[in-house]
Amino acid sequence: MPPIKSPTSPHSTPLANALVTVFGGGGFIGNYAVQSLLSRGARVRIASRNPSSGFALKPLANLGQLQFAHCDITQEDSLKAALHEATHVVNLVGAFAGDLTELMGEAPGRMAAIAKANGAKAFVHMSAIGPDAQSSAEYARGKALGEARVLGAFPSATILRPSIVFGKDDGFLNMFGSMIEMLPVLPVFGPDAPLQLVYVDDVAEAVAVALENPHAHGGRTFELGGPEQLTMMQINQRIAAAQGRERRFIAMPDGLSGLFASLPGTPMSKDQWTLLKPGSTVAEGALTFADLGIEPRPLGLFLDKWMTRYRTFGRFGLSNERAKQRAASNS
Predict the structure, then answer these.
(1) Helices in 6-67 by DSSP H: which ranges?
(2) CB neighbour burial string for 114-124, b if at least 16 within 10 angstroms, e if fewer
(3) In angstroms, how far is CA 124 from the centroid of its own chain?
(4) Phi and psi of 238, rounded to 5°?
(5) Residues of the chain with pLDDT > 90: what percent?
(6) In this predicted structure, which of 9-13, 14-18, 44-48, 256-260 has the lowest mean pLDDT?
(7) What is the DSSP string of 76-91?
(8) Which of 62, 106, 119, 315 is most buried by a 10 A CB count?
(9) What confidence category does residue 331 fall into, taking pLDDT thresholds of 50, 70 and 90?
(10) Which residues neighbour 330 within 8 Å (Cβ) at sequence distance 6 or greater?
(11) DSSP secondary-structure letter at 103?
(12) Distance between the two ends of the chain, CA-based, in angstroms?
């Protein structure tokens, strides 16, 4: 039987006809990672608690190229079923709620052990910048444990640590975008925290590149950040400018921010505040996108277009920059 090829990729690739199980494939990053794998001719099995979250990807796959499996990653039998005959494995599971030690620490280790026993050729594990076994944030401790468990069971696994991931349908830019649309004055938590926001398509490409060449990238850890560092204050200001809105931003003191994050029902959890405060940037000397042969794209390449829906007159409105340019040309 000839290799299955994606409609968007007529040429054979190292992943052509491989069976890739993607845990969390129906999530935000998973949606893009699966598309990158399909374009390389891989057969993809999305393993998720809610497989229907990935159904929108069906039109992008050839007949038989995309599978769906209900999976509880805390149950070994469920993992074994999802990994049956998989030649390559990707773990994208992440969470800020629930038993994070189990979901992001122990479960990935079991995935890796089963994949290794099954003879899988490659394993890519999605972590995050700043894993720390001694952190007060359970999220950072869970990520550190996950990395250790995965490498302990599958030493040639590739670890990817992205900064905050942005995209047209993310929960980051759109959360701030909607707040800036509604409120004339906004507090900014961690206003000086430096971030290297990273484009979701670039992260998805990193997953595929690492997976298709485990001999070059296996057993290595890559920190994935965008090409520029921006503070939280600068990000908010850029979003407002892209919407064509004048907004007042108030830098919140750390003490007040920490107290806010400790309250129930707020949009920022205590773990998120703990992780935000020091920022999220690529460490000096770390392996990066460049070592994967990928050139990451900046936020500015997309923001003006994505914020169109938040403008007063939608696509007929103007961003602040364009409005100023028009005013200058008319003066």
Answers:
(1) 28-38
(2) bbbeeebbbbb
(3) 13
(4) -70, -40
(5) 81
(6) 9-13
(7) HHHHHHHTTT-SEEEE
(8) 106
(9) very low
(10) none
(11) I
(12) 69
